[in-house]
UniProtKB/TrEMBL annotation, chain A:
The keyword Transport applies. Residues 8-415 form the PTS EIIC type-3 domain. The phosphoenolpyruvate-dependent sugar phosphotransferase system (PTS), a major carbohydrate active -transport system, catalyzes the phosphorylation of incoming sugar substrates concomitant with their translocation across the cell membrane. The keyword Metal-binding does not apply. Keywords: Cell membrane, Membrane, Sugar transport, Transmembrane, Transmembrane helix, Transport. This is Permease IIC component. The lineage of its organism: Bacteria, Bacillati, Bacillota, Bacilli, Lactobacillales. It is a multi-pass membrane protein.
Amino acid sequence: MGLTQRHLLRQLVPRLQRLRETNFYRVIQRTLMLTFPFILIGTFSALIQQTVLTKSGFFASLFHLSKWVPYYRYLHYPFDNLTALTLDSVAVVAAFGAAKYHAKLHQRDDQLAGLTAAIALLVMAYQYADDASAFNDLMLGTNGLTGALIVGGLTGEFFKWFGRPIRDDHDVHTGQILSRTFQSLLPMVAMLIVALLVSLGLNWLIINTQTEQLWENWQKYATTSHSVWVTFAMAALTLLLEIIGLFGPYQQQLAVNTPAMNANLNAALTNHSATNVPYPFTASTLYHAFGTFGGTGMLLALVIAIFIGSNNHNYHVVARWGLLPALFNSNGPILTGLPVLYNPIYVIPFLLAPLLNMAIAATAIAFKWMPPVVYPVPVGTPGPLIAFIGTDGNPVALILGGVCLILSVLIYLPFMSLAEATVSASVIKATMEGASDDA
Amino acid sequence: MLASSRPRWKGRVTMRKSINWPRRRRSLIVLLLGLCFIGLLIWPAFHWTRANVKGMTGRHDSRLSPIIMIPGSSASQNRFDGLVDQLNKADKRKHSLIKLTVKKNDQITMSGSLRPRDNEPVIVVGFENNKDGYDNIKKQARWFSLAFKRLTKTYQFNNFKAIGHSNGGLIYTYYLEHYFDRDDITVKRMMTIGSPFNFSEANLDHKTQMLADFIKYRDSLPASMTVYSVAGTENYDSDGLVPARSVEAGKYVFQGRVKHYTEITVTGDNAQHSDLPQNRQIVKLIQQYMLDKRMQPNRKRGLVGANPENP
């Protein structure tokens, strides 16, 4: 076993290392690093907002906070604000970063490129409607990361095509800065025009509302279906889309009370037992209850895998910061800090761990070892407790939650080691070449 | 690259040899603390879900189905005393009468009580500030939401019937559009009696701000509700105070949105606006349309709707 593992590492590490060192991947990684602190702050703010300051939140429900905390109704406003402008606007930072690093690679004016990309993204997200909020939330939040990277990359390309290289930054006086600015004017204008055209297209052709409707219908189909196969297929699709920075049909924020959930709850209340409900295999009984410990992709398991098996200092730091959010199912810090997003190494466990857990849960429900999750669960309930609460305190559900977590840690461990080996191989190479390419 | 801040390596990629124990110990302590934290939450979580499910089961199994009434402007919580008397006589049942008054400072006083084995009490919600006008209706709708919240805490019911006289119907409409959001409680039926949806404006081309708002937010009305709009008329176009056309304007709010919308016009004795709640015809309508039918042994309970449309 040890031998084959070493053999595999020797095979895979150089390939992954080569991928890491492509310009494309470097830009993505650095951009994600740039978004990381904003996502971290935003995640903690969202955590407090959702679990403590929302009435249906986990701590608010358990300890009846709304009843005895003074001014409880107003406390969430500052956190709403902070979350909206950090976590929910992080795509702007990503657009800035992608353009900046791309321009820097080609010795263009990186500051102007970054700012142009950020503004271009805002231009595209602007909605020409009177009553809607000014910007399209989907394009600016974490779901817009991939779009932002494309906008940033395109801006960088424009600067490469239309701009001229600049010499290094030392000892420039105002005149030189001015001439440099004028050299960047052409790519800036070109990019903004493209952004305006895209925005006009989105608004006039009603692509925005149409995709939103299409998306809503699709999600409705996904969440209302109660066939085991559709549930698993949709879960796999969600996971795949999320690891490439998009959003899938089972995304947590959008999950609402579905007819199937209501039917289950009604049946359970009528029979005074949750064992025989009409739809035992749905998104809420399988995916949300057993497949999302630590947010999409069971990332709580990855955090624990790092604690147990990693020897990389940065991994430990990110994991320690990410533990608390991951306990309450926010995966932002881990997704961008390691990063897991766009990381081919983690694709397999990111899909495998949740799907395996769902399969275990489905088996347990089918053999009636435990009832399906039908009762309401507060927002932000820690992953391993979701099934416990949702089954009215069934001990088997609690044990199964623990088993699922341990299995997921075991699934993540080898992939975490592979990622770590790739990182240290790169570090060694960089140190040997004596190159320090970090900004 | 990213992870280059402190390279810890000894010449080769050897993963096992360079384990940094203090760091790992720190991380494991963090992990242990995290797991203990979750562990400590198991007990409160268990209690919460048990209490929550018990509460939901109680509400779900409850057979209580109150009739909640809102009087019109310038009327108090005693407005419907005569109506309830007549109703009790006609129905040969004694419905409990519970009265709530919401003060200007959001305080609620409550009088009367639920008699044992009465599943259909009449609850009247009055307001200290019972003045007319759209701004006051908005305020009263908020006050009603407070009273309703208090009722749901005091009595476990999963459905209710709504009756609003005059502005009471408008307060109900505003409340249902802007405040009512319970999944576990349904409005079965609503009856508005002489409610001027367009205030004193008889011409339907001139929509008041209130009517425009009602129409704008009509999609928030519960779709499963049945609505009866009763108009009284002294002459051919008014009940002496409210134009029949203004009552009729309710169709723009409800028709096509709620399950059924029925307009009823009452004429004859006691068809003047303020007399409507005592009108014998209207008492009969309430008995026929709003009250639950008494259980009949040869039929299954729950399948019997009180609507004549779907028996």
